[in-house]
Amino acid sequence: MNPTTPEQPADVVARLRATFRTGRTKPVAWRTEQLRGLRAMLTEKGSELAEALHADLGKSATEARRTEIDFTVREIDHTLDHLADWLRPEPAPVPAHLGSDATAWTQYDPLGVVLVIAPWNYPAQLLLAPLVGALAAGNAVVVKPSELAPATSAALARLLPGCLDTDAFAVVEGGIPETTALLAERFDHIFYTGNGAVGRIVLRAAAEHLTPVTLELGGKSPAFVDSDADVQVVADRLARGKFLNAGQTCVAPDYVLTDPETAAALEPALARAVEGLFGTEPKESGEYGRIVNERHFDRLSGLLGSGRVAVGGDTDRAAKYIAPTVLADVDPSSPVMGEEIFGPILPIVTVPGLDDAIGFINDRDKPLALYVFSESEGTRDRIAAETSSGGLGHGLPLAHLTVSDLPFGGVGESGMGNYHGRYSLETFSHRKAVLRKPLG
Ligand code: NAD
Question: Which residues are catalytic?
Answer without folding.
Answer: 216, 250
